Amino acid sequence: GTGADNNLYINQAIVFIEDAIQYRSINHRVDSKSLWLYRWYYSRTCQWILSLTITIILALAFVEKPSSLTITSDVRYRLPAWNPPCGLTESIELLCFLVFMVDVSVKSYLIGWEEFWKNKWLMAYILTLIVSLTDWIVSLSFFCTENVRIRRILRPFFLLQNSSMMKKTLKSINSTLPEMASVVLLLAVHLSLFTMFAMLLFARTKDDQQDKEWVGYFRNLPDSLTSLLVLLTTANNPDVMLPAYSKNRAYSVFFILFTVLGNLFLMNLLTAIIYNQFRGYLLKSVQSSLFRRRLGIRAAFEVLSSLKETPANAQQSYVSIGALLQVLQKVEMDSRCKQAIMRSLKMCSCDQLSAAQFQKLFEELDKDAIKQHPPSPQYRSHFLQKMQFAFGHPYFGYLGNVVALANIVSICVVLVMDADKQPSERDDFFLGAINCFFILYYLLEMLLKILAMGLKRYLSYPSNRFDGLLTVILLILEIATFAVYGFPHPGWRPEFMGLLSLWDMVRLVNMLIVFRFLRIIPNMKFMALVVTTLLDLVKNLRAFAGILVVVFYAFAITGIMLFKGAVVPLGNTRKKCDFVALLGHFEAEIIYCLLYLPFVNLICRWAKIYFVAWWLISSVIWVNLFIALLLENFIHKWDRRCHREPLSDIEYQRTVELMFRDVLEEPTEEELMEKLHQHPHLQLCR
């Protein structure tokens, strides 16, 4: 081939390998200009601009009318929210729409017209933009006075379509819905039957004193359904049963049966079904991601084998190591993986790689991310060696944990003794003195550990970074306290000088000391397992968190449109709440009265549908999905802990894809080649 062809093959291989790294589809244009545009589109700068645009358009709801973004949410005390002039947020919105139009245009061009009609997400993207722009024009024509803005509810779609993992998660959730619907239907039957029983059991009688249950909770069908639905969430338990229970203890059997069947059986059955089904569909999604990675690597091999460096009559294709090294120099990938692959190439005795060798080389991408800690310094002095051994020993860390525990106990003792004292009566000498002592110990401990481990090795441990940062902050706060209020002495009274009073500064120091006590977690194996599970879950929850933002945002915007102006400080609602205050009820009950009474009484009873839908989606479905992922992550880590104890100097980091790595099936040669021959823009030589 010519030099231009060779450059094209090299660029194609670069893009295919980058697609494999990011689990992207390879069904896009592969000519020179399209490859340049493709790499530009997926560059960090472009993706950062797109992410910033999505963040801005979602954040507009916080300042748009009728936003109530104020310091306090209490309608009695909050100031009027800032109302931007017409055209300000609309101009920002238009700029965001222009970015999205460029985004959808580039995506549509890169995949080609034939693939465009198969991509439902892109078609929905274009439809969302058309509806949003139409609604934007309507807003300007009404001078921003319209009450309903459809485009605000559609904004979360821009976040949803930008993440492939969110799309897979949503597809998994959608596939799980039929099984979830069967249990939800059973839950509805359970609720309906007990509602009818309740209306018969607590029917109205002639004695008004005996009808408190009927008056408060079971007056009619909507109230009865609502009361039992709220009982299913345990929010009104045991209030809902107290009137009947005070009349006859036997009535408690009804509520106990309802709670046991609903909460203990049906809700947990729903959790089990969601875990089982969602895990299966998520596994299928991860299996397709593995296929995309293998397909991208195989596509890179096929185009590199077209460099005419092997005989034309060869029965098997090969790729030269020199061509692969040339590709690796330009590929954007993790430095750890790139270095590992290059080390393997240097150790290879042959000049060419077969398809199997090429694929095996890139299996480095599937391995755990391993972080090795730097070695400790080597001291020649015998005295320093002994110090290194003593202060680098685990027992020295245990001693630090005991000291931290003693610090916590001493703080608790002082707080208990001073709990009922007025600030003017409090003597902070003892607390200030023990804080000074313990902070000096923490500083000495940090310096000795750095001496024993070396600065690089010390900072390579997250627990040490956490420890050291808090120690430095504590030291700075203690020096600032001494500079403003002097050293602790008997009669050290809290006075207000500068930004914080003495008591405020002492409290801040003590809160940080309590927080620092979390250093014991790595030393408790089971607790460390739980914490690392949660941390790994947080790292891998971007897709779930994104969909959660979509759900919260859509419901929030819908709630703003439905209940705008329902919570007001004046009128009958305020009078009723003021009456509650006159009766001597707590402030929390007044706030509850102000916030929630208007939704049902001032709007309409159909408002309950909104809150029930919110409860079903957020609490029932989404919480159970979160539990499913949490269980999967924890069980996986527990199995790994039982089979292999990691070395102390190595940290393993897992992703959702690696979580299922042991049960995934490798695609066959025939499946990969069949898929490659179906590529709409790539013509293979064989």
Automatic annotation (TrEMBL):
Swiss-Prot/TrEMBL catalytic activity: Na(+)(in) = Na(+)(out); Ca(2+)(in) = Ca(2+)(out)
SUPFAM superfamilies given in the database record: Voltage-gated potassium channels (SSF81324)
Localisation: Late endosome membrane; Lysosome membrane
Protein's membrane topology: Multi-pass membrane protein
Matches recorded under Pfam families: Ion_trans
Name under which the protein is recorded: Two pore channel protein 2
Highest taxon of source: Eukaryota
BP term (GO), one: calcium-mediated signaling
GO molecular function annotations of the record: calcium channel activity; intracellularly phosphatidylinositol-3,5-bisphosphate-gated monatomic cation channel activity; ligand-gated sodium channel activity; voltage-gated channel activity
Residue span, Ion transport domain: 55-278, 396-634
InterPro entries: Ion_trans_dom, TPC2, Volt_channel_dom_sf
Source species taxonomy: Eukaryota, Metazoa, Chordata, Craniata, Vertebrata
GO-annotated cellular components: late endosome membrane; lysosomal membrane; monoatomic ion channel complex
Regions that span the bilayer: 45-63, 92-110, 122-143, 180-203, 251-275, 395-417, 429-448, 468-487, 499-521, 541-567, 579-597, 609-631
Organism: Eudyptes sclateri (Erect-crested penguin)
Keywords: Calcium, Calcium channel, Calcium transport, Endosome, Glycoprotein, Ion channel, Ion transport, Lysosome, Membrane, Repeat, Transmembrane, Transmembrane helix, Transport, Voltage-gated channel
Cross-referenced Gene3D superfamilies: 1.10.287.70, Voltage-gated potassium channels. Chain C
